[in-house]
Amino acid sequence: MLVVIALGGNALIRRGQPPEVEIQRQNIKLAAKAIAEVAREHRVVVTHGNGPQVGLLAMQAEAYKGVKPYPLDVLDAETEGVIGYLIEQELCNQLPEQPIVTLLTQIEVDPQDPAFACPTKPIGAVYSETEAKQLAKERGWAVAADGNVYRRVVPSPEPKRILELPTIRQR
Known about the structure:
By secondary structure, the chain is α+β, with helices and mostly antiparallel strands. The protein is built from six helices and seven strands, in the order βααβααββαβββα. 43% of the residues lie in helices and 22% in strands. The strands form three sheets. Strands 4-6-5 form a three-stranded antiparallel sheet. A two-stranded parallel ribbon has the order 1-2. The radius of gyration is 17 Å and the shape is globular. The two termini are 16 Å apart.
């Protein structure tokens, strides 16, 4: 049986934890132990979020004044690669006899998707309402409440198709 397991970005960096790679490694190690149990008896696909990670990269990119910040799609790909690499490493440790591969995919979205006009996907750090409103003003961000804190929000359009799917199906 094929089992799809989704790990949210906040499962990799929990609220309140600093966004450090070693903390992500420890959280991924815990998840990989559970995933390995399933993978011993089933085919498994792991997908993951990246909200805290892409937000961190966006903030780091904006801090470097000599270069125009990278667009979110490029930062998204960078975090996909890093997170996929960390998950693959730990799954290889848990399942040394099984083949494991990381895939970086692209999706097509409708440029007219209403999500572009109404950002809702939280990314990055948490802020007080005052800090969030100031950052929104300074950086042109959209911000929204996330529980009792505020975060930057970006569009999350509905995926139309995975561009690499024909290649993936060739396996």
